[in-house]
């Protein structure tokens, strides 16, 4: 196995040559994977036949890119989380000393208030409204920032993606869109945010409980309708930690009639009410006509799609039944592109948003985006 130093050197060369690659680490794992495209073609992803690593935008009308498994090499290397660096619960104050413009605050509060008013007067139940913010970075080395993200957010899906058509994106997202293996799938309903104050008992307000329930109900309803889906079950909501933030999460598991029949399921899930709103189309239109920036790949999704993996055969007689499936299975593991940024000309464009319901408060929503943006800012400092 090559060392991380050697692999990062190879990735630097890949970036200098403007060739696509992605390097990522899954929640809780102690190794990273780099997928390095070995030619300079641009591959657009088609959900029915994509096999590789997909990078898909918020708006499905825009282009999703793929690093195809057949045109790339996979390299795995250890990326241990050092305990002393893992300061995720309390980011030191000096890391938070970035200025934000007052006009940003005003603009965001006006946008949120428009969302609240639309919910109170129409059919819209929830809309996720976001903003972007640019900060200068002293040392915009994406590999250094990637290493920082891994140390700070060991429980997130951490990634660094480059493609000549999209530029450099990176992030540490807490939200899994879907994971599948053979006919089994797993997804989650994530919503509600509060800052982790370190107390063992976490209390959630009715507003957040309701907001998260919308998300769970929507995911269940839209998946139940799909003929690809055979069974589906939701667990109990629990508090999940994402850096110094807490969210409410419900795990949803199920099975499909045909292994790897993902297209319909992805289309049913994306964009989830955790990043768009309810009803989906109205929320989508509201976002498109009111937000003052392009989301691009923020609130899109990314990850392994139909990756062939070897299944270890078990010589135990009782498992013989399972062997009839053969030794190769296709696996997908996709994440929602949250807590992310785009690196452009030595600056980081950070994307943050929050779910708005009838009980939301514009000033609180602004603060929520400030807290979320600090997840990115804390890793930009040396
Ligand atoms: C849209 C974002 O977060 C979503 C995911 C979890 C909690 C959320 C919330 O509390 O509003 C958002 O729905 C973001 O981080 O930019």
How would you portray this structure in words?
This protein has 382 residues and is α+β, with helices and mostly antiparallel strands. It has one domain (4-380): Anthranilate synthase, CATH 3.60.120. Helices cover 27% and strands 34% of the residues. The chain contains 8 helices and 18 strands. The strands form 2 sheets. A 9-stranded antiparallel beta sheet has the order 5-2-1-7-8-17-18-6-14, sandwiched between helices. Strands 3, 4, 9, 10, 11, 12, 13, 15 and 16 form a 9-stranded antiparallel beta sheet that branches. Helix 2 crosses helix 8. The longest helix is centred in the N-terminal third of the chain and has 20 residues, at 102-121. It starts with a helix and ends with a helix. Residues 85-92 have low confidence and may be disordered. It binds the ligand C=C(O[C@H]1C=CC=C(C(=O)O)[C@@H]1O)C(=O)O.
């Amino acid at each position: 196995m090559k060392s991380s130093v050697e692999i990062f050197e190879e990735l630097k060369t890949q970036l200098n040559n403007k060739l696509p690659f992605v390097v990522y680490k899954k929640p809780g794992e102690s190794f990273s994977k780099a997928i390095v495209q070995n030619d300079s073609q641009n591959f657009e992803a088609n959900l029915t036949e994509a096999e590789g690593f997909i990078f898909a935008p918020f708006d499905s009308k825009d282009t999703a890119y793929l690093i195809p498994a057949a045109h790339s090499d996979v390299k795995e290397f250890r990326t241990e989380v050092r305990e002393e660096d893992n300061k995720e619960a309390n980011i030191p104050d000096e890391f938070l000393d970035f200025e934000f413009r007052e006009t940003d605050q005003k603009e965001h509060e006006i946008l949120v208030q428009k969302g609240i008013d639309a919910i109170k007067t129409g059919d819209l139940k929830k809309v996720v409204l976001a903003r972007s913010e640019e900060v200068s970075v002293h040392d915009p080395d994406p590999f250094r920032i990637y290493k920082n993200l891994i140390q700070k957010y060991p429980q997130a899906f951490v990634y660094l993606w480059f493609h000549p058509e999209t530029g450099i994106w990176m992030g540490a997202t807490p939200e899994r869109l879907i994971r599948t293996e053979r006919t089994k799938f797993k997804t989650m309903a994530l919503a509600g945010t509060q800052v982790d104050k370190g107390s063992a008992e976490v209390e959630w307000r009715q507003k957040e409980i309701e907001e998260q329930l919308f998300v769970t109900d929507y995911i269940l309803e839209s998946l139940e309708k799909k003929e690809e889906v055979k069974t589906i079950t939701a667990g109990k909501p629990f508090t999940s930690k994402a850096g110094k933030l807490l969210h409410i999460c419900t795990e949803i598991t199920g099975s499909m009639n045909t292994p790897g029949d993902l297209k319909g399921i992805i289309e049913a899930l994306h964009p989830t009410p955790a990043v768009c709103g309810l009803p989906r189309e109205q929320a989508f239109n509201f976002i498109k006509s009111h937000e003052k920036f392009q989301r691009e790949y923020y609130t899109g999704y990314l990850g392994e799609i139909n990756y062939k993996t070897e299944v270890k055969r078990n010589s135990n007689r009782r498992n013989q039944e399972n062997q009839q499936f053969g030794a190769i299975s296709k696996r997908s593991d996709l994440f929602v592109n949250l807590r992310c940024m785009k690196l452009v000309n030595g600056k980081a464009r950070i994307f943050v948003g929050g779910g708005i319901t009838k009980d939301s408060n514009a000033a609180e929503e602004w603060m929520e985006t400030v807290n979320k943006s600090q997840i990115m800012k804390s890793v930009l400092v040396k």
